[in-house]
Amino acid sequence: MSGESITQIQEILMHQEQQISDLSKTVLQQWGEIDLLKKHIRKMQNEIDAVSETADRLSGASEKPPHY
């Protein structure tokens, strides 16, 4: 291999290493965002469950009609 070929390979390798580093940072950032979204979803689900339970209690949905 000539010196020029080795230099080109080294440049390609450096570029790929930078891309891998950038992708790793992006993945870490996305995992953080996913974790935050999961927390928000859990909170909203808990709120929905609480509202649903309250609505059921207030509407008497859990009570059987008198003819049963």
Structure, briefly:
The protein is built from one helix and no strands. With 68 residues, the protein is mainly α.
Report on the structure:
This protein is mainly alpha-helical. The protein has a domain at 24-57. It contains 1 helix and no strands. The mean pLDDT is 92.
Features:
single chain, 68 residues, mainly alpha, 1 helix, 84% helix, 0% strand
Which secondary structure elements does this structure contain, and how are they paired or packed?
Elements: H1 3-59
Q: Gyration radius, to the nearest Å?
A: 29 Å
Number of strands: 0
What's the rounded overall pLDDT mean? 92
- Structural class by helix and strand composition: mainly alpha
The topology string of helices and strands comes to H
- Treating each run of at least 4 consecutive H or I residues as one helix, how many helices? 1
Low-confidence stretches: none
Helix content: over 70%
Sheet with the most strands? none
Our estimate of the beta-strand percent is: under 5%
> Distance between termini?
91 Å
Shape: rod-shaped
